[in-house]
Amino acid sequence: MVFIMYVCLCHGVSDKKIKQLVLEEGLTDIKQIKKCTALGSQCGKCVKMAKEILTETGAIEYSEAS
């Protein structure tokens, strides 16, 4: 069973979508995620969680290493 967690309730952006953008599109920071989704454009409460997902997915470490 696969669970999907909505990170941005205002715009329906899920953790799966963020991970997909990191792994498939090579995005490495919140600014890039915001350009592809509406993440953080309404109330902004989702940005902290999105940053945690980026870290868990390895995007932050990857971008610092390159």
TrEMBL record:
GO terms for molecular function: 2 iron, 2 sulfur cluster binding; metal ion binding. InterPro entries: BFD-associated_ferredoxin, BFD-like_2Fe2S-bd_dom, BFD-like_2Fe2S-bd_dom_sf. Gene3D superfamilies: BFD-like [2Fe-2S]-binding domain. It comes from the Bacteria. Its cofactor is [2Fe-2S] cluster. Keywords: 2Fe-2S, Electron transport, Iron, Iron-sulfur, Metal-binding, Transport. The keyword Nucleotidyltransferase does not apply. Residues 6-56 form the BFD-like [2Fe-2S]-binding domain. PANTHER family: BACTERIOFERRITIN-ASSOCIATED FERREDOXIN. Belongs to the Bfd family. This is Bacterioferritin-associated ferredoxin. It comes from Vibrio aquimaris.
